[in-house]
Every structure is written in C-alpha cells, then in structure tokens.
Amino acid sequence: MKRNTLFKLHTATEFNEIALEIFKFQASHNTVYKNFINLLNINVNSIQKIEQIPFLPIQFFKTHQVVSSSKKEQQVFLSSGTTGNNQSKHFVTDLAVYEKSFRKGFEFFYGKIEAYTVLALLPSYLERKGSSLIYMVNDFIQKSNNPKSGFFLNNLDELSENLKKLDQNNDKVLLIGVSFALLDLIEKYQFNLKNTIVMETGGMKGKRKELIREELHYILQKGFGVEKIHSEYGMTELLSQAYSKGNGIFECPPWMKVLTRDTEDPLTILPKGKSGGINIIDLANINSCSFIATQDLGKVYPNNTFEVLGRFDHSDIRGCNLLVL
Fold first, then answer.
1. For residues 159 and 155, what is the distance between their CA atoms, to the nearest angstrom?
2. Which residues contact 147 (CB under 8 A, 6 or more apart)?
3. Collapsing DSSP states into helix, strand and coil, what is residue 52?
4. In 3D, which of 16, 134, 1, 129 has the Cα closest to residue 69?
5. DSSP state of 280
6. Helix (H, G, I), strand (E, B) or coil at 157
7. Which residues 6+ apart lie within 8 Å of 82 measured at CB?
8. What share of the chain is helix, strand, coil (3-state, %, to 5)?
9. 127 and 78 in contact (C-beta within 8 Å)?
10. For a FRET experiment, which of 57, 103, 129, 281 has its CA 20 to 30 Å from that of 170?
11. How far apart are CA 232 and CA 24, in angstroms?
C-alpha cells in the first residue's frame, strides 16, 4: 500500500476497505499480533468489517516489539513512567509516516502550522528521552519558521511576557502544555488572551492532584481569559492525534477512528452512545499495529466524535494474559 493513500481518505467506505487491508497485512506480518489472533482462535479471512477486527491490548507495547515491518527502526518512542517493562516502546520504522500524520492532522483541524507562533510548555516531557509528543511539537516549532516559537522549561517569566506581547500584537499563538505546567503558569500570572489557542495535552504526571476535565478546563479558562480550552489526545503507541476544540469532545482525522468495547467482553464493540473501553484504529500505524485497545474509558457519539471519561481502575486489560512469550 502506498502510504500517501492513507492521508487521502474521504469516505467511510474507503476507510473500511483500507482498514481491512491493513488488518490482513498486519495479521500476517506482525508476529505479536498474529500470535494474539491465533490464541483468540480467530480466522483472519472471516473478518469482513472493522467491528470484527480484534484489537491488541496496549500493554503489549510494554513487553514486546510490536512491528509489522522488517526494516530497522528509525526511532523508538518511550512512554512516560519508570524504566524497564513499565514503559511502552513504539518502534517506528518510517518517521516520514509519523511526520505526515501529525502535520496533516493538525492542518485538518487548525490550518497551516506556519500561521502560528508555537509556545510549548512541556517540562515533564522535555526532561526525558524518547517522547513522541516532543518530536511532534519540535517539528511544529521548526515548521512555524518563527523565531519567537520555542520550548519553555521552567522560565515561566519569559513565557508570560512573550505570550502577552504576541497576543496583544494580534499574532496567532498556539500555547500547548501539560496540565500541571499550565496551572503553574496561571497561578503566577493572570491573562486575558484574545488570539491564543490554549491546548492541554493532559496529565498531572504526579505533580498535582488529578482533576476531572470540567474542573481543569474551568480553572484554565479563568486563568487564561479564554472561552475554550483545546485538547490533544495522543499516545506513545499511536502515530495520529485527535483534537478537541472545547468541552472535551474529540474529533479524529480521516485516517483514525475510535470505537468502544464492552469492558467485560473485549471482543464486543458497543453501539454509539454507550460507554466502554476505547479502541483506536490508527491507519498511520501501518508498520506496527493499527488496532489498539487502550486503557481509557470513553463514549463515541453518532457523529463519530468521542469523549474520554477516565481510565480503567485495574492495571491489566482483559485478554493480556492470552499471550505470554
């Protein structure tokens, strides 16, 4: 399959056809996924629609090399957390696919990145190696081609000054930050932003008490003086991102889709409007696994937008014990 095809999808029929094509390819070429399917006693040829596709529990990225390509990896992205088996490892054999996915994904929702000054407040990610988020945001900063774009670690004074000046000059600004750092910023400074998108990437990373989304966004809206807080939904194991322009309702780019599964029967896909475990189809993950059962709980709406409601309160998703290699 030509990778460019992935990013030119227009209809549900096209998505389903390519998803099934990728499923058959990965069921044959991805050893971990192939073994998982075999242990479930699923006949690959019997899969006729995406709702029948088995989704690989995301924990396998912590214990196995999940790849569908014989090429050597160009980059290994690591999840946050401690070293060893507690970290997910995503072996990316073609960074060009990742770059195309996140560039086109952002453009799909927000337009050209060149139109923005990108200010990144991601201290917990900057302080470790192998972050896929840092890779993406660094590319945004470079592509913005703006000397005022950049990362800010602990220099909140400089960030505050830049943010206020840029906003007052009517510059289009993207402030992307981890939740606890954005809270640190507004505790020290008060803003009234008119031309800035404030985008949180989630997570307190153990720095603060976890807040429900409504409370977090309310505090951030008041502190930044904005009507909406935007959100980015991505993870180490994916090569695509969903975005929310407010109210925590996310939308996927055309090559990504979210389904929900029954929490007691992981092979059963729920109808729209029912809460369950979030399954993600990320067609950009063609060289690893495009069908992932996450540890998030959520709900998919009739228009295919979705909401993240929380996380599983147990560490293992049902089905993980099917494969011990």
1. 6
2. none
3. helix
4. 1
5. E
6. helix
7. none
8. 35, 20, 40
9. no
10. 103
11. 30
Structure tokens at 300: 């998919």
3-class DSSP assignment, residue 272: coil
299 within 8 A of 293, measured Cβ to Cβ: no
The pTM assigned to this predicted structure is 0.91
The helix or strand, by DSSP H or E, that contains position 277, with its residue range, turns out to be strand 275-282
pLDDT along the chain (325 residues), means of 10: 77 94 96 96 95 96 95 93 73 96 97 96 83 95 95 92 95 94 94 96 72 90 96 96 95 97 94 96 97 96 94 53 39
In this structure, are residues 256 and 286 in contact, taking their beta carbons and an 8 Å threshold? no
- 322: β partners: none
252: tokens are: 């996927």
In angstroms, the Cα distances linking 305 to 218, 293, 295, 299 are 21, 18, 18, 9
d(CA 280, CA 293): 6
Point out which residues pair with 76 in neighbouring strands: 91
Integer Cα distance of 111 and 104 in angstroms: 9
Residue owning tokens 């992307």: 176
CA–CA gap between residue 67 and residue 120 (Å, rounded): 31
C-alpha span between 168 and 255 (Å, rounded): 37
